[in-house]
TrEMBL record:
<keyword id="KW-1003">Cell membrane</keyword>
<keyword id="KW-0813">Transport</keyword>
<comment type="similarity">
    <text>Belongs to the binding-protein-dependent transport system permease family.</text>
</comment>
<feature type="transmembrane region" description="Helical">
    <location>
        <begin position="244"/>
        <end position="267"/>
    </location>
</feature>
<feature type="domain" description="ABC transmembrane type-1">
    <location>
        <begin position="75"/>
        <end position="263"/>
    </location>
</feature>
<keyword id="KW-0812">Transmembrane</keyword>
<protein>
    <submittedName>
        <fullName>Polyamine ABC transporter permease</fullName>
    </submittedName>
</protein>
<keyword id="KW-1133">Transmembrane helix</keyword>
<feature type="transmembrane region" description="Helical">
    <location>
        <begin position="143"/>
        <end position="163"/>
    </location>
</feature>
<keyword id="KW-0997">Cell inner membrane</keyword>
<dbReference type="InterPro" id="IPR035906">
    <property type="entry name" value="MetI-like_sf"/>
</dbReference>
<feature type="transmembrane region" description="Helical">
    <location>
        <begin position="200"/>
        <end position="220"/>
    </location>
</feature>
<keyword id="KW-0472">Membrane</keyword>
<dbReference type="Pfam" id="PF00528">
    <property type="entry name" value="BPD_transp_1"/>
</dbReference>
<feature type="transmembrane region" description="Helical">
    <location>
        <begin position="20"/>
        <end position="44"/>
    </location>
</feature>
<dbReference type="InterPro" id="IPR000515">
    <property type="entry name" value="MetI-like"/>
</dbReference>
<feature type="transmembrane region" description="Helical">
    <location>
        <begin position="81"/>
        <end position="99"/>
    </location>
</feature>
Length: 279
């Protein structure tokens, strides 16, 4: 062999276990995506029956959905509730994550367990408990009671995702900022906040989606005057099954897709997946 020639690298061998893992992952993804594709396809059905494959192509069910003022009101209520719960959860969750990441105080583990407890309890139990508590205080089945319940529901996601961002934080930048005379307030907003942005953005988007699609907690605390989209969908399918419900359900899928695209645009899917794995 001549001195300037390099030996050829052996071809990479496919590990059987890795191939099986990839195959299982694709099967799981397909299993989850096929029902969503069926719902979206059925929503364009021209027939008055809920059938797949769809018979023809029509947008009449989307037109009927968007021209119904009760559905528009439920969308607005769900959006307002999800936005309000997300903003409050971001403020409280970021503050709690900061305290637990920086402070070593008695009861820290107990506080974290308390904040994570809504993930352990079934949502239907939280909804029933919230209804009884709000009834005792005289504000049951109001927007305030719904907002309090949804904040409790989404707060654990924000805390865990923001807390995972603090684990990789570069403290030397904060120390340099304070050495140069910056106040703690200025240091947080100019140094700390940009570094934990992935956790805040992903936590906020995740909280919005969880609040938007929640049924179990909401069904106990809504009223005819305060209808939410997931609850209205549930009530509709109890009496009628037609492509209109497919169009409404497909619209919620579109919202989730938009959330995924926003996550990818702001922080990247890989970073979001890593943050979820760490949480």
């Amino acid at each position: 062999m001549e001195p300037h020639m390099t030996p050829a690298r052996p071809a990479a061998r496919l590990h059987p276990g890795k191939c099986l893992l990839h195959a299982a992952a694709w099967i799981a993804i397909t299993y989850m995506m096929v029902p969503l594709a069926v719902i979206i396809a059925t929503s364009f059905n021209e027939s008055n029956r809920l059938a797949f494959p769809p018979q023809g192509f029509s947008l009449k069910w989307y037109t009927a959905f968007l021209s119904d003022p009760t559905y528009i009101d439920s969308i607005l209520n769900s959006t307002q509730l999800a936005l309000g719960a997300t903003v409050i959860a971001l403020v409280l969750g970021t503050a709690a994550a900061l305290a637990m990441a920086r402070g070593q105080f008695p009861g820290r583990s107990a506080l974290l367990t308390l904040l994570m407890s809504p993930l352990v309890l079934p949502n239907i139990v939280i909804g029933a408990a919230l209804l009884q508590f709000a009834s005792m205080l005289g504000f049951a089945r109001t927007f305030t009671s719904l907002l309090a319940g949804h904040v409790i529901l989404v707060l654990p996601y924000v805390v865990r995702l923001v807390l995972s961002s603090f684990s990789g934080l570069n403290r030397s930048l904060e120390e340099a900022s304070q050495d140069l005379g910056a106040s703690p307030f200025s240091t947080f907003f100019r140094i700390t906040l940009p570094q934990i942005k992935p956790g805040i953005v992903s936590g906020g988007l995740f909280a919005f989606v969880v609040s938007w699609v929640n049924v179990e907690l909401s069904i106990f605390n809504t009223s005819p005057q305060l209808s939410l989209l997931p609850v209205k969908i549930l009530n509709y399918v109890e009496y009628t099954v037609d492509p209109l419900i497919a169009a409404v359900s497909a619209s919620t899928i579109y919202v989730a897709i938009v959330m995924v695209l926003l996550i990818d645009a702001f922080i990247g899917i890989d970073k979001f997946a890593n943050a979820r794995a760490e949480s």
